[in-house]
Amino acid sequence: MPRVNRTFVFVLLLASSCAFLLFQLYYYRNYVSKEPGLHLLDSAGHVTSSQVQWQNLKKFLALAQFFRLPLFLADSAALALLSQDALRQRDRVRREPHCSFLCTGRPITSFALPASQWQLSPGFLLAAEQKGFQLLEVRGRDPRLASLDTLSGEEIPLHFLFRLHGYIIHVVLLYERSGGYLWHGVLRLKAAADPTFAPFRLLDYGRHAGAYDRPELLLTVVDGLDVRVPRNISRFLVQQQEARFLECRYHDARSFLQLYPDDSSTAAVEFRRKAKALLRLAAQTLDRLDVPFWISSGTCLGWFRQCGVISYSRDVDIGIFISDFRPQITAAFRNVGMSLKHQFGKVEDSLELSFLGEDVKLDIFFFYRDGDVVWNGGTQAKSGRKFKYIFPSFSLCWAELLEVKVRVPCETLDYVMANYGTTWNVPVKSWDWKSSPSNVIENGVWPVAEWARLIQVY
User: Fold this and answer.
1) Is 47 helix (H, G, I), strand (E, B) or coil?
2) What is the DSSP letter of 450?
């Protein structure tokens, strides 16, 4: 029996193997890669979770680009990874090579979209479903149509959740409000909705309504995909943490105004006009200094009780935590045409500033934290007597008053009741700031030798 040439056999096996590999490549390119599904494998030949998520994002963003939807990345975890500090440390952390930022280990990726752009792409949802995405749409009433005259508002889309291969892409619609800011609604499921559609507790958005400044966007490449991101990522992330928005209580306000009709006199209408201009100017001035404030005292009561200002109060009241005090505040208000009327107290104790603009007074009360309470001070100029107004601790939320985006205490009822008692819903036109508030106590007297420095009236 003739001996088999080993070289010939080796060459034959090598040629057969190459032919089989070429056939596999041909079949993959022409058949498998055209089928829907996943085709990225790791070094061991397995599809990884990050590759699944990346493929979903690639498909979704390509679809959004086709329909010209200017989505921008709003995912807090992904944006945190894109921050400058994270970029500097990226090489120290071992991550998936093709999905270092968008694949965060969470089953959800969040995007935001101006609602005005959404209305221009009616075919997007159908196209997404044809690509295999399952859809959950969450709708709610349009607060922009609510007012004291009508409480009915048509429903608008607020959130879209797209699910594919167990991963969720959350699109938050941002609506422009009359105050010039962007707003998104709360994600509240209807009775017929599937509560298991997504891990709702992991969502970045939807636990409450939110308010944002309009971000400047930058189109860049993230993990090989074209993605818009906020140019100032750090600022956006701070806003995201502090975005909770409280809607005006229109139903209760209308009931109140039916019992106590609003003053429609010329003087009252003029005061509301001036108060609106003053509030807007104060917001712009303090925003330039990066000083957060909230509406306080009678101004806060007016917003909470009647969705407006109390015309007989004749002033605008705001609060600032003393930790946010800036020495430049007085000069900043003078530079916009306001005059300083008085300055009481000092930074360490009971500081209070009062400015005048268009014959309306702006009172700025500085608040001090003391354990589980906060307080602000008051000073009687003629006697040097000191007073303290004590409130339970509170956090801050956004709201809208007179078409101006302002902060209010999130625990508004507790705040109002501390100041005005259980009868806060009954108008009181005769008010003594030294004795009428429910939370006022006497706090000593300023030393006479310090009056010239601590009690300044202009």
Assistant:
1) coil
2) G
**278 class by beta-carbon count within 10 Å (0-12 exposed, 13-18 middle, 19+ buried):** buried
CA dihedral 209, 214, 220, 225 (to 10 degrees): 30
What pLDDT is stored for residue 145 in this prediction?
Answer: 80
pLDDT of residue 32: 34
Sequence-ordered alpha helix ranges (H) in 263-411: 266-288, 297-306, 329-335
Tokens of 233: 């990522």
Residue of 283, 351, 297 lying closest to 322 (CA atoms): 351
The answer to whether 99 touches 51, Cβ cutoff 8 Å, is: yes
The whole-angstrom separation of Cα 446 and Cα 453 is: 10
The DSSP call for residue 21 is H
Q: Could you give the CA distance from residue 59 to residue 53 in angstroms, rounded to a whole number? A: 10
Pairing of strands 134-141, 108-114: unpaired
Banded model confidence at residue 91, pLDDT cuts 50, 70, 90: very low
Rounded-to-integer distance, Cα 273 and Cα 458, Å = 25
Q: Which residue is associated with the tokens 């608008």?
A: 156
Q: Which residues contact 322 (CB under 8 A, 6 or more apart)?
A: 347, 351, 366, 367, 368
pLDDT tens digits, 404-432: 999 999 999 999 999 999 999 999 999 99
Q: Which pTM was predicted?
A: 0.85
Residue with tokens 């589980």: 372
Residue type for position 41 = L
Token output for 317: 């009241």
- Alpha-helix runs per DSSP H in 313-411: 329-335
Report how far residue 343's alpha carbon sits from residue 279's, in angstroms, rounded to the nearest whole number. 20
**What are the tens digits of pLDDT across the range 335-349?**
999 999 999 999 999
| 408, 296 contact by CB (below 8 A) | no
Please tell me what DSSP assigns to residue 201.
Answer: G
What pLDDT does 146 receive? Answer: 72
Return the structure tokens found at 62.
Answer: 């390509």
Pick from 340, 338, 215: nearest CA to 280: 338
For the record, the structure tokens of 121 come out as 């792409």
The C-alpha atoms of residue 347 and residue 330 are separated, in whole angstroms, by: 13
Other beta carbons within 10 angstroms of residue 447's beta carbon come to 9
Report yes or no: 303 and 295 within 8 Å, Cβ to Cβ.
yes
Question: Taking the alpha carbons of 194, 198, 202, 203 in that order, is the dihedral positive or negative?
Answer: negative
Identity at 166, one-letter amino acid code: G
Length of the chain counted residue by residue:
458
Q: Identify which of 217, 266, 252 has the alpha carbon closest to the alpha carbon of residue 112.
A: 217
User: In this predicted structure, what is the pLDDT of residue 144?
Assistant: 83
Residue 63, burial from CB neighbour count under 10 angstroms (0-12, 13-18, 19+) = middle
